[in-house]
Design a protein that fits this description.
Layout (H helix, E strand, L loop, with lengths): L3 H12 L6 E6 L4 E8 L3 E9 L1 H5 L6 H22 L9 E7 L3 H18 L3 E5 H12 L7 E6 L4 E8 L2 E7 L5 H11 L6 H9 L23 H16 L6 H26 L1 H5 L5 E5 L6 H14 L2 E3 L3 H4 L4 H12 L18
Parallel strand pairs: 1-4, 4-5, 6-9, 9-10
Antiparallel strand pairs: 1-2, 2-3, 6-7, 7-8
Helix pairs in contact: 3-4, 5-13, 6-7, 6-8, 6-9, 7-9, 8-9, 9-11
The structure holds 5'-O-[(R)-(carboxyoxy)(hydroxy)phosphoryl]adenosine and zinc ion (ZN).
Length: 360
């Protein structure tokens, strides 16, 4: 009898010549249990997201043990629902995919083990996916015309990267945060304002009614030209809030939120624009086709506006995932998995969670 790994490689090679390749993908790296069925890396046949926010809100952040348990309880249901909404049974899909990292180890392990069991049982190839690559790939689902090479700003709760997507699955790191991630900074600032977890979307909504010029926050300094730093901004923000509290003044929360959001977005787009200027010749020649946003923070309204203005100024096309595809979901994992599968990159039964996995 042929072993699972050999079968998987053989099947992946056959799938490279198939017209419609459907992948069932599962994402469990943090606090969303999410599954989707994706066709040819571009078409969403179903996309089910079960958020655990209610379970973690009480603690003001994600509690890893609670997340693992909740994933374990939800995995089967979410996977069944994704298949049902796609009008398919497990036998009908061509391959399976799962996030292998980065993320919370227990949460990742739950998903990896669930999909390993299903893939082995059904005799289907399995692809282990990098979560950050998943975020980048959310753009392929939203924009069928987008193809590498392009530049991408990946901003999430754990990552702030400027990368060049040289080809599918091939990245060049141009800059990254030296301390906090942009989403992390948003969440901490929200906490100081007494807003519930996750704070990013709350700060964003509150900012719409505030004056971004009301408070001046420092411009971060970094050694690397395209690196980011948000911890100084965060500390300055905390000091501003504490200063107001100590003087017994009421907190103008909308103005504070808007000033913080403005400062974070300015930092994100200023470095990105510097990069676009450096790459102007490659953009003009058509070699670099686009600039894309990715990750949970790319749902931010101000960042989307500022990125729009920046790309107009620099004469480059802007791509962004639709807002629901910015935050964690299974669809983006299914998209990333397709391009890996087409290259024959399938996992063995020794696939493991890699909590500190890097994009490059
Ligand atoms: O990509 P994601 O869902 O998970 C990670 O891979 O980290 O990103 C979650 C992060 C959280 O920090 C959340 O507060 C932030 O993205 N976020 C936002 C917005 N929506 C989500 N931050 C600012 N504005 C938003 N609208
Ligand atoms: Zn994410």
């Amino acid at each position: 009898m042929m072993n699972y790994e050999a079968m998987s490689r053989e099947r992946a090679a056959e799938l490279a010549g198939k017209d419609k390749v459907r992948i069932l993908a599962l994402e469990t790296s943090c606090d969303e249990t999410a599954a989707a069925v994706i066709e040819n890396g571009r078409v969403i046949l179903s996309n089910v997201v079960f958020s655990q926010i209610d379970l973690h809100e009480l603690y003001g952040g994600v509690v890893p043990e609670i997340a693992s348990r909740a994933h374990m309880e939800a995995c089967d249901r979410v996977v069944d629902q994704a298949l049902k909404e796609a009008g398919m049974a497990l036998e009908d899909v061509d391959a399976l995919a799962v996030t292998k990292g980065p993320g919370l180890v227990g949460a990742l392990l739950t998903g990896v083990n669930c999909m390993k069991g299903l893939a082995f049982g059904a005799g289907k190839p399995l692809v282990g996916v990098n979560h950050i690559e998943g975020h980048v790939s959310a753009n392929y689902l939203t924009h069928p015309d987008l193809e590498p090479p392009f530049l991408c700003l990946v901003v999430s709760g754990g990552h702030s990267h400027l990368v060049e997507v040289e080809d599918y699955g091939v990245y060049r790191l141009l800059g990254q945060t030296v301390d906090d991630a942009a989403g992390e900074a948003f969440d901490k600032a929200a906490r100081v304002l007494g807003l519930p977890y996750p704070g990013g979307p709350r700060i964003d909504a509150l900012s719409e009614e505030g004056n971004p010029e009301a408070f001046t926050l420092p411009r971060p300094k970094t050694a690397g030209e395209f690196d980011y730093s948000f911890s100084g901004l965060k500390t300055a923000f905390i000091n501003t809030v504490h200063g107001l509290e100590q003087r017994g003044e009421p907190l103008p929360k909308a103005d504070l939120a808007a000033s913080f959001r403005g400062a974070v977005c300015r930092e994100l787009t200023e470095k990105a624009e510097k990069l676009l200027k450096r790459e102007a010749a490659r953009i003009q020649s058509g070699e670099l086709k686009a600039f894309a946003l990715a990750g949970g923070v790319s749902a931010n309204r101000e960042l989307r506006r500022q990125a729009g203005e920046m790309c107009r100024r620099q004469g480059v096309k802007l791509y962004m995932p639709t807002v629901p595809l910015c935050t964690d979901n299974g669809a983006m994992i299914g998209s990333a998995a397709y391009y890996r599968l087409m290259r024959g990159e399938v996992a063995g039964l020794n696939l493991n969670a890699e909590p500190a996995l890097r994009l490059v």
